[in-house]
Each structure stands twice: as C-alpha cells, then as structure tokens.
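Below sits our specimen:

——
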Amino acid sequence: MGNFDVQRFRHALVLWLLDNNLPMEIINRASTRELFREVSTEAEGALWRSPRSVATYAMRLFHAIRPQIVDALSSAASKIHISFDGWTTKGEARGFFGIVAHFATASGEIHDLPIALPQLNGAHTGEAIATAIVATLRAYGITSDTLGYFVLDNASNNDTTIAAVAREFGDFNPTQRRLRCGPHTINLIGQALLFGNNKDAYDNAAEHIDDEEAFIAAWRKHGALGTLLSVTTYIKTLQQHALFTECLKASNNNLPAAARVKILRPIKPVVTRWNSYYSALERATYLKGGFDLYIEKHVSRVT
C-alpha cells in the first residue's frame, strides 16, 4: 500500500466520526486500533493518539472550510434566516448554542448550514445569547442587508436576544422578525391538554380555579395518565424490565396468535424530546396487555 495518503485517511476518518455522531475517544479503543491494524499497519499508525488530537484536527478542518461557507452565504439568492437553540451537557457543566443559517441559492436549492456551536458560560440571558449570535453573524459576513428572520422556540429570553441583535443590525423590528417555532408551539399545546398547566384554560370563575387545579393535580398523580407515567418512569432497572417482559409474555399467552404483540420495552417520555410523550403513549397503547398485568401485580410500589 505504497500510495497510502495519511491526510486523506484522517480527513475521511474525522468526517466518519462527525457524520455518525461517534465519540472521539473511540479512536483510542483497543478494538478500533486492532480493526485498522487488520486493514493496514499504515492506517493504524495514522490514527491519533488522543481524543484531544482528534478534536484539534476537526477544528482545523472546520476553520479550513469556513471560507467556503462564507462564500456560499455571500452568494445566497435569498435573505439569510437564522435559527438557534441551546442545551447543556450532563451535570450542566457546559452550555452550548447551535446556530444554523437557512438560505436559498440562485438555482432554488434550500440550504441549512450549521455555522457555529459557541460555548456559553454563565446564565443564558438574552444579552449573553445575543453577544454570541452577533459575533457569529459578523464572522460570516452577514449584514443588516442580508439578515432575514429568526425562527426560535418560545423561551422568553429569546425576545430579549432578538431585541439586542436588532440594535446591532439596523434596529429592525424584533417582534416582526422573530418567528415562533411551530412544532414547539404544538408541543406546548399538547402538554397543556395533557397536564392542564394553564390557569386560563379552566375558564372558570376565580373562586373555582384552586379547586380545579387541585382536581387536575390529583388526576395527574392518580388518574390513568398519572399512573401510566409513574409506571413508565419506574420501569428503568433491568429487574423491572424483566418483570414487565414477563407480564407482556403472559398477556400474549392469553391472546390468539394474530393478536399477540412484539416484546418491546416501554418508552420513557423526555420533556426536551417533543414527540416523546406521543411515542410513550403510543407504545403503552400497543403494549396495553402487558401494562395492565404489570399494574395489577406491581402498581402498589409506584402509587
């Protein structure tokens, strides 16, 4: 393999890691190195020796291709629209903001380009977020003439963010240029329907609101939905999953062959995954026999 190209190999390897969302430390696992050694000793020798080296290479690659992204943005046929959202790592040790540019080319193609992932230290105030957004827009040559609309979720600090960005980019109307994320709005509506968190939704006289809230809280805790969510949350250990599987199999045994369901695990809803409550309820409906039997035998432990 005399024509082995180390740089082309590393370029392809880091893109493989990024495209598949793989941890950079996978390169240092013995099994990974053994795999590449079987292919070629040159390939094994070209592997980085630490995850930090992989990250450094990835950042160098990012900075190398950034001028191409700037060129693409500067030649956009449409305004450049921006969306961004933040999240924190486990333990809330670090906070990041993903920033994406959306635009149309002269040929009519729609492009969605992630352009930055700044780390945001301290409180995620609107002003702090705006500082990161403004710096990113300027780094990519986006001006008040080329900047379009912002599509964001309904977090209140986004109002402050866009107002601050507006002051830096021609003092545009922040209310007009900030579009609400439709799926997030639908998610909030769904949660209000499920959990009754909005006082205005009761539409009753003020003296009845406390009673209504107490009733809804009790229903969430002890009613069908509350019990189901409690059970789903409780089934998290290997032991509890085994008990649920036994109940599901026992339920299947009482059904004709055509009506039996697959042996699947319950889905635990996660508040930041907007479809997770739907997925959890859909799965619970499909596994109804298993849930009924599990609740009959084990529900006293979770109520």
Q: What stands out?
A: The first strand starts at residue 80 and ends at 88.
